[in-house]
Amino acid sequence: FRGIKVDDDDFGLMLYDPAFKNTASCRSAITLIDGDKGILRYRGYPIEQLAEQSTFLEVAYLLLWGELPNESELAEWSDQITNHTYVHQYLIRGMEGFKWDAHAMGKMVSLLGTLSTFYEDSKQVRDASVRREHIIKIIAKMPTIAAWCFRHMQGRPYIYPDNELGYVGNFMNMLFRMAEPSYKPNPVIARALDVLFILHADHEQNCSASAARAVGSAETDPYCSLAAASAALYGPLHGGANEAVLRMLREIGNVGNIPGFIEGVKNRERRLMGFGHRVYKNYDPRARIIKGLAHEVFAVTGKNPLLDIALELEKIALDDDFFVSRKLYPNVDFYSGLIYQSIGFPVEFFPVLFAIPRAVGWLAQWQEMLSDAEQKIARPRQIYVGADKRDYVPMSERG
Ligand code: ACO
């Protein structure tokens, strides 16, 4: 394009695509989204089948290595993850530096970056075996760091990993175990979290995956690349939306206040959080699964009183031309927060519950980017709209 010029002084052609709405930044074989049809597949497998029949660690293997593992591959993979759940004791010193009630996601972003200082060899990003080693470490340590952020927030002592428990069981143990050593994760809740992890594991070139790829393209180590991705996820328009939905439902308070709230949205005073998506112009398939899952969880925890507000909001919005004409449907964040809240998580922790499984997607995208000979350092251009050349004005002449 830059070679197409009307004369020698001409800049040439350049594609202007703010927010990359219509730009494919890479070729990828990991995740397919057909936003018009509401389809999501990991490595070709429909998300509905994976949510029903698979487990998070199996899906992690699939996303990272391209195929479902056989029995021995899965056993080995699970063993490797289990062996790396502990974090260096000095990481606690980093944790202790945070204000106890600081947002858990801010702590996660910082601690992921901090982890890079423990693993100098992780900078060898062109070495596939080094990459694999740190991919395993990150997937293993995410729940430990997250659970410790949770305990720090509550002023409770950290619980060390129990490698006899599964990925989610160990996470729940580190979160919720009190003084007695007999804590047993409820199997319905453990399975629900596992399914939520599957649903959140990857979503192609979203804001945080693009951040992981862009920062990783500078050959930055995976810990810092994922710190950047987590920072992107933190925002309320991305992974922070689950938290924003819960705050919104609380603010609405009861079903009678919904019409007034919807009017405010239509007058552009606010957005209906958990609605709309850059790619889905149809019902987000993950939201459909999560809506079903919510009922299973509520059978154990008791119904979340905010559910009625969410259901009524959805009903009204899907029957209102403002939302219908703009193809605004519930996204993954609309119902997930209700489940998290019923399990006992404070809203500030919701984005962290998104980041743990999404680390797998970031790592899969990061690895694919590094293995693709066509990928170079990410470096978009711009359309310059500033001043023409002008001479420096001394202070005394500036008026
Ligand atoms: N509530 C009200 N109106 C909305 C909403 C919403 N949630 N989302 C989009 N719109 C409207 C916009 O006002 C705009 O209307 P207009 O054309 O009349 O100006 C139109 O729909 C298109 O909106 P855009 O902002 O251009 O859509 P975009 O693709 O840039 O944004 C986004 C997508 C950020 C997800 C947006 O829908 C949003 O803000 N949703 C609420 C936050 C949210 O739930 N985020 C989670 C997304 S899923 C995830 O990241 C995991």
Automatic annotation (TrEMBL):
<dbReference type="InterPro" id="IPR016142">
    <property type="entry name" value="Citrate_synth-like_lrg_a-sub"/>
</dbReference>
<comment type="pathway">
    <text>Carbohydrate metabolism; tricarboxylic acid cycle; isocitrate from oxaloacetate: step 1/2.</text>
</comment>
<dbReference type="InterPro" id="IPR010953">
    <property type="entry name" value="Citrate_synthase_typ-I"/>
</dbReference>
<keyword id="KW-0816">Tricarboxylic acid cycle</keyword>
<dbReference type="InterPro" id="IPR016143">
    <property type="entry name" value="Citrate_synth-like_sm_a-sub"/>
</dbReference>
<feature type="active site">
    <location>
        <position position="277"/>
    </location>
</feature>
<feature type="active site">
    <location>
        <position position="333"/>
    </location>
</feature>
<dbReference type="GO" id="GO:0005737">
    <property type="term" value="C:cytoplasm"/>
</dbReference>
<dbReference type="GO" id="GO:0036440">
    <property type="term" value="F:citrate synthase activity"/>
</dbReference>
<dbReference type="InterPro" id="IPR002020">
    <property type="entry name" value="Citrate_synthase"/>
</dbReference>
<comment type="similarity">
    <text>Belongs to the citrate synthase family.</text>
</comment>
<dbReference type="GO" id="GO:0006099">
    <property type="term" value="P:tricarboxylic acid cycle"/>
</dbReference>
<dbReference type="InterPro" id="IPR036969">
    <property type="entry name" value="Citrate_synthase_sf"/>
</dbReference>
<keyword id="KW-0808">Transferase</keyword>
<dbReference type="InterPro" id="IPR019810">
    <property type="entry name" value="Citrate_synthase_AS"/>
</dbReference>
<protein>
    <recommendedName>
        <fullName>Citrate synthase</fullName>
    </recommendedName>
</protein>
<dbReference type="InterPro" id="IPR024176">
    <property type="entry name" value="Citrate_synthase_bac-typ"/>
</dbReference>
<dbReference type="Pfam" id="PF00285">
    <property type="entry name" value="Citrate_synt"/>
</dbReference>
